[in-house]
Amino acid sequence: MLTNNIVGISSGGGHLTELFGAIPNSIINEVNYITYKNGHTRKTLHGKKHFFIIDPHISKLKFVINFFQAFFLFLYLRPKLIISTGAGIAIPFMLIGHYLGSKIIFIESGARVITASKTGQFMYKFSNLFIVQYNSLVKIFPNSKIGSL
Questions:
Q1: Are strands 6-10 and 32-35 parallel, antiparallel or unpaired?
Q2: Range of 38's domain?
Q3: Which of 24, 64, 116, 141 has the fewest CB atoms within 10 Å around its CB?
Q4: Where are the alpha helices (H) located in 9-149, listed in sequence order?
Q5: pTM
Q6: How would you write the pLDDT of the chain (149 residues) with one tens digit per residue?
Q7: What domain count does the chain have?
């Protein structure tokens, strides 16, 4: 079991960029990052503590594999706090964390101005803190907080 108790989990690309923007610089190197492996994510996470899991996208089989990877990785990391900017790759890990006592912070993507993401809609009820970046989304997520990255 590792002693760093913060996990940042997201898809690659813009979600990962937003995740970095959400984590204070004072702790950015203390976070264990989880995403999927590709050239961009390997380069972005070089020198940071990170783990790769499969991106389930829309495959039921990959979703099952992602769940088992997330479960065993959760047992290894035992995070007290999980921060995510989405997308679907993060759902199993966040749900496991929710049911095993982790605090969950979900940040709806800045690309979502009027409509909610599927991941956001799903994770809203499981998050301890749900952050939106636009006032228009407070109507959809009434208990959310407004923040910007």
A1: parallel
A2: 6-146
A3: 24
A4: 14-22, 39-44, 60-77, 91-99, 118-123
A5: 0.92
A6: 444 699 999 999 899 999 999 998 888 888 999 999 999 999 999 999 999 999 988 899 999 999 999 999 999 999 999 999 988 899 999 999 999 999 999 999 887 889 999 999 999 999 999 999 999 999 999 999 998 76
A7: 1
